[in-house]
Give the backbone structure.
Amino acid sequence: MSAYRNGELFRATGLTLNSSTNHVTANTTNDTTGRTGAIDISRVSNGLLVVTIANAPTGTNPTLAIFFDVLDAYSSWVQTSPATSIGGVVVSAAGTTYGVINNGYQMTNLGRIRWTVGGTDTPTFTGVSFSIHGRP
């Protein structure tokens, strides 16, 4: 079944998020397409970004803010998710969070998931999974 048919545009599992990386297009394979690079959002008008963190984070006072960006005509990434993080909250423990993404700012049909890790003593989030489900 294709990504379009079941509505899943992107899936990546078992990721490690820390301050040395900041977005999934950096050599992360999309399990629905087998490709790396920006996420094709051309077939959807809105969607849901679901983030699952399987393991307790390491470090002192670890925080994880997750964002969704789209590429504009000048090759600049524009944040389209809430200012604090998807779902309006910063994550600090294992669990699941989600947020709505829409194409109100869709400019080139390409999107990416981006994050910021905060805290001290090398904060790291492991066992992270991202999935994007959309509606035409």
Notes: The two ends are 16 Å apart (CA to CA). The chain has a mean pLDDT of 86.
